[in-house]
UniProtKB/TrEMBL annotation:
Any one biological process term the GO annotation gives: methylation
Domain Methyltransferase: start-end pairs: 77-170
Single GO term (MF): methyltransferase activity
Protein name: Methyltransferase domain-containing protein
Stretches with biased composition (Polar residues): 41-53
Organism: Parasphingorhabdus marina DSM 22363
Organismal lineage: Bacteria, Pseudomonadati, Pseudomonadota, Alphaproteobacteria, Sphingomonadales
Length: 246
């Protein structure tokens, strides 16, 4: 008799623990739902080759950006959204044999092609990693610089992504790491993001803007950020309203 009473109660117990997912969250990764959703449109993935490497080298893009970022031999650098490896191979040369470069992308095919290129060029100081759209999956307290070049406007979960990026940036008293962003000041639908929107989203997750310069001849603008203070809890992050493109 007692077994007949217990079984219905056990069957009903899991139902009480179910949490209804809102329509707004239904299309989001479960791992990102603790964070605010993007409060702006998100660019569709546009492929991994922003421009030809020859054209970019003609205007000295990588050399100028690496100089502005303060890249030096021996540094450990991450290239997020590495694609075909334009910055990866140049960063590898710049940091030298004592430095390290971690090239990351969420596109498995691109990662495979980049791994082939790294092997072909004997880049022993480069590692390859597959990331996720809401998590760069980087080791903690590891990087002097993290590069986000022509890719941030495609990040579908900016607040989760930036929050999970913070721990990877070196925070030693004598060695503070930075995030380097290169993007274009134009509508997100045209694969860019307004600087004001960029600044607001980084600030919302506890980053400080260190420097900014407009460089249209290099394909857009350059910004430097550093995490400061304690990271805000996911529920305390205030999403940014869409800013103008100025």
């Amino acid at each position: 008799m007692s077994a007949l009473v217990v079984v219905p109660l056990l069957l009903g117990t899991p139902l009480a623990g179910c949490k209804k997912i809102s329509d707004a969250d239904a299309s989001r990764p479960e791992t990102a739902r603790a964070y605010p959703p993007a409060s702006r449109p998100v660019s569709q993935l546009a492929g991994n080759q922003w421009s030809t490497e020859t054209a970019r080298d003609k205007v000295g893009e990588a050399e100028e950006i690496m100089a502005a970022a303060g890249i030096e031999p021996g540094m450990t650098v991450a290239d997020i959204g590495a694609g075909e490896g334009y910055y990866t191979v140049r960063l590898a040369e710049k940091v030298g044999a004592e430095g390290r470069v971690l090239a990351q992308d969420i596109d498995e095919a691109a990662i495979t092609r980049l791994a082939d290129r790294v092997a072909r060029d004997d880049l022993d100081n480069v590692s390859i990693k597959l990331g996720a759209g809401d998590d760069p999956r980087l080791p903690e307290n590891s990087f002097d610089r993290v590069f986000l070049v022509h890719m941030y406007h495609e990040v579908r979960e900016p607040y989760a992504f930036l929050a999970r990026l913070r721990p990877a940036i070196k925070q030693d008293a004598d060695n503070l790491g930075e995030v380097i962003v290169v993007d274009v000041n134009r509508p997100i639908e045209e694969h860019g993001i307004a600087p004001k929107q960029l600044f607001c989203e980084f600030e919302a997750v506890g980053y400080q803007l260190l420097g900014f310069m407009e460089r249209p001849e290099l394909g857009g603008y350059f910004a430097r950020f550093r995490p400061v203070g304690k990271a805000p809890l996911p529920g305390r992050i205030k999403p940014c309203k869409m800013k103008s493109s100025s």
